[in-house]
Amino acid sequence: MEQVILRYDGEALVEHSMNLKLVADSLQGIEALVREVHEEMGGKEEELNLQIKGGFQKGSFEFLFTLGQQLPDGIELLKIIGFGSPIAAGSLMAYLEWLKGKKIQKITMTEEGDCKIVTEDGEDKVAPSYMRPLLASTSVRGAFSKIISKPLRDSGIEVFEALSTEEKKADRTQYVSVTTANEKNYRAKNTTVIDLIDNKPMDEKVITFLTVHKDKDTSWRVEDVDGITYTVKMEDEDFLSNFRKGNEPDIFVDAYAVEIVEKENTINLDKTYSIVKVYAPE
């Protein structure tokens, strides 16, 4: 079981009251964020138990958040998010602080199995592989926006904190403190990663066509000399035009040399294939 106090502070909260919409959105954001991180770390829905209890210190509004979950290898979700450890300790929040609201240009995998994050202005940083889908997720950013950014943009709310659970605030360890000056780091984004696809040209191959379509350039099937079958998109417009005009009558008989590009989604690692050039039959 993990516990943390999530606390808002500022002049608007001196009477321990907070706008109901902000409270509701914040709680919804906390639940959505924890559930998504739990799922990405291999957790199952039935293994997650979230509890919220209100607790008030003078001049603030706070929740006692309790998380019960079962994950392998002693994984602690609150530390991965950043609510349960100092923000400099490589948490999700630490990477968002490093990004400073910038978009990610590209995320690639390293030979060691980590992920390399490159920002739109060329800065880069290596992170654990499990951070790849979390940093790319628009719903994760939306959840952080509800928890941190939107409340801090409301008049009179100046600080969001994550604290250890001692009864007296003076005894608590401060894990996270976000002020209005850097709430922009946690705003929602429609697009988090600019280049989702990594194009990898393959060695020239000799193939035969198994399935072709005159009415579309997708779902063509080819087989190479090693018997490996690929479903491809035909991107060679000249070849496609000749084929549609009936100028490739032996398309299922002839063998063709082709250039194929493997296109890998850098987030979910799905691969697709495109033929970018078809040469004369062998």
| Poorly predicted runs of 5 or more residues | none
Strand order of the largest sheet: 2-3-1-7-8
The Cα radius of gyration reads 26 Å
Question: How much beta, percentage-wise?
Answer: 25-35%
Biggest sheet statistics: 5 strands, antiparallel
Mean of residue pLDDT values: 91
Task: Tell me the overall shape.
Answer: elongated
**How much helical structure, as a percent, in the residues?**
10-25%
Q: Treating each run of at least 4 consecutive H or I residues as one helix, how many helices?
A: 6
Order of helices and strands: EHEEHHEEEHHEEEEEEHEE
What's the end-to-end separation, in Å? 65 Å
- The SS-based structural class is alpha+beta
How many individual β-strands? 14
Q: Which features does this protein show?
A:
5-stranded mixed barrel, 282 residues, 6 helices, elongated
